[in-house]
Design brief:
With about 290 residues, the protein is of the alpha/beta class. It folds into 2 domains: about 90 residues, 3-Layer(aba) Sandwich (Rossmann fold); about 120 residues, NAD(P)-binding Rossmann-like Domain (Rossmann fold). It is about 40% helix and about 15% strand. It has 10 helices and 11 strands. The strands form 3 sheets. The chain has a 6-stranded parallel sheet. Strands 3-2-4 form a 3-stranded parallel sheet, sandwiched between helices. Strand 9 and strand 10 form a beta hairpin. Helix 1 packs parallel to helix 10. The longest helix has 21 residues. About 40% of the residues are buried. Bound molecules: NADP nicotinamide-adenine-dinucleotide phosphate (NAP). The site of NADP nicotinamide-adenine-dinucleotide phosphate (NAP) has 25 residues, from helix 10.
């Protein structure tokens, strides 16, 4: 039977590291990290995310302010608010909940965030650094995939990794992080031919499609290590892209949904705010 990769356990370990960092700073009388998360309008998914981010941050001693803005806010007013946060030395991380209302220019707004406070790696500058292999705050979902593989001692160098999905927030950055770790990466998408054969040959399969239980026995082999990023609602339950129950005996390791990749993302975001505080104190973000 394949081994279950426990995202909750890994999240607990990282929370422990964050708590140590916070406790040390408290003992030294130093300032604690502060995140401001901006929500424009009342998208249900975004409200869920901002509340869970707040819960994790405050439980670890990281200050978390929600900036709740009307969906009809003018673009210039939102830009001004972000610039104010950029100039506030007590703010370490700025998050914008996506999607923004369609009348707002999402790219312009995101790229107003100072890269040194862009803890979710959404600005073009930080994404460029990521693609150049420079040090940068790693985007949380792709970083969750890498962190889980590393915590479970999965060697990446020279491994044949297949990523299904090429979105800017998951597929492409996770593929780039894997290349940065010396894996040999194939990116697949909806136009890929022979998807089953390509996946079956992979040592590691990262699935970020958004189609419940899409991956079955025909896509895997007995040594497959599978990272399931997908989250869809099926019969009222959050379900991954992989049909875990029916392939668990045919593979080597897999992340469950829930309790896998998604269990770690918020914790990694909070960890980035601690790094941002250190970067900003030492003013070495661009070095
Ligand atoms: P997305 O922007 O919709 O991208 C989906 C990708 O899957 C696209 O590249 C698409 O190909 C590809 N695809 C769709 N159907 C396919 C098929 N039949 N065969 C092969 N490829 C196919 O989604 P996303 O934002 O990357 O998110 C992917 C999933 O991850 C979603 O379920 C989302 O909810 C979940 N997610 C989870 C977390 C977490 O923390 N757990 C975070 C973010 C996202 P084309 O490019 O050709 O259209």
């Amino acid at each position: 039977m394949g081994k279950i990769i426990d995202g909750k356990k890994v999240a607990q370990d990282i929370k422990f590291e964050i708590k140590n960092f916070i406790d040390k700073r408290k003992q030294q009388g130093l300032r604690l990290p502060k995140i401001v998360s901006i929500l424009v309008g009342n998208d249900e998914g975004s409200i869920y995310y901002i509340n869970s981010q707040e819960k994790v941050a405050t439980s670890l001693g990281v200050e978390f302010n929600k900036l709740l803005l009307d969906k009809d806010i003018k673009e210039e007013d939102l830009i001004e608010k972000i610039k104010k946060l950029n100039n506030d030395n007590n703010v370490d991380g700025i998050i914008i909940q996506l999607p923004l209302p369609s009348k707002l220019n999402e790219k312009r707004i995101i790229n107003t965030i100072l890269p040194s406070k862009d803890i979710d790696c959404l600005t073009f500058i930080n994404q460029g650094k990521l693609y150049c292999g420079d040090k940068v705050f790693l985007p949380c979902t792709p970083n969750s995939v890498i962190t889980l593989l590393e915590k479970y001692n999965v060697e990446l160098e020279g491994k044949n990794v297949v990523v299904i999905g090429r979105s800017n927030i998951v597929g492409k950055p996770v593929a780039q992080l894997l290349v940065n770790k010396n894996a040999t990466v194939t990116i697949c998408h909806s136009k890929t031919k022979n998807l089953k054969e390509i996946c079956k040959r992979a040592d590691i399969l990262v699935v970020a499609i958004g189609k419940a239980k899409f991956i079955d026995k025909e896509y895997v082999n007995e040594n497959s290590i599978i990272l399931d990023v997908g989250t869809s609602s099926l019969d009222g339950k959050i379900t991954g892209d992989v049909d875990l129950e029916n392939i668990i005996n045919e593979i080597s390791m897999i992340t469950p949904v829930p309790g896998g990749v998604g269990a770690l993302t918020t914790t990694l975001l909070i960890k980035n705010s601690c790094e941002a505080l250190e970067y900003n104190e030492n003013e070495n973000f661009n070095s």
